Amino acid sequence: MTKTQTTRNPIVLTLALILLLLCSCSDDKKSGAPANTGANKPVPAAARRGSIRANPNPVQVCTGNAGKTTITWEATGAKNIEIRIGSPDGPLFGSTLSGAWPTGDWVADGQTFYLQDVSDGLLLTKENTLASVVIKHTKEGCK
User: Fold this and answer.
1) Is the C or the N end of the chain the one with fewer CB within 10 Å?
2) How confident is the model at residue 47 (pLDDT cuts 50, 70, 90)?
3) Domain boundaries, position 70
4) In a domain, 100, yes or no
């Protein structure tokens, strides 16, 4: 074997292996069969549901203008959930499919908490709001 033949053989072998790998990895485009079997299909919007509530609501506020409550939520048909304060894209309060978290003593009268579906990169918009709860204040029971 000459020196030229020795150096060309590894190159030809490498090219053949690359071609073989490329051919074995291609999708079956002729049959029209999708490469993805549907395991990661997004859940239709109608199948995504959620609820959010506050307890207590109304919140008793005897002095000042802020109170505290516990926000409880749950969602089905969604992969990722965020609880936002004040607007669908407001400050983040929590991010689990279900939970119950107390607020601090900072909740204003009329404060709204939004249950946002952010699955698969959904945007923080009103269209992706599954539910919301508005907190009310009361002086009932104050002395």
Assistant:
1) C
2) confident
3) 49-138
4) yes
> How many residues make up the chain in this entry?
143
The string of pLDDT tens digits covering residues 95-141 is 998 999 999 999 999 999 999 999 999 999 999 999 999 999 999 99
Q: Quote the number of domains for the chain.
A: 1
Distances from the Cα of 8 to the Cα of 4, 5, 17, 21, 56, angstroms: 6, 5, 14, 20, 79
Instruction: Give the pLDDT band of residue 35 (cuts 50, 70, 90).
Output: very low
Q: What is the pLDDT of residues 67-85, one digit of tens each?
A: 999 999 999 999 999 999 9
Residue 54's DSSP bridge partners are: 71
End-to-end alpha-carbon separation of the chain, Å? 104
10 three-state secondary structure = helix
Q: Is the dihedral of CA 107, 133, 73, 84 positive or negative?
A: negative
Average pLDDT over residues 9-34: 52
97: domain CATH number is 2.60.40
9 occurs within a structural domain = no
Residue 102 lies in a domain: yes
| Partner residues linked to 98 by β-bridges | 74
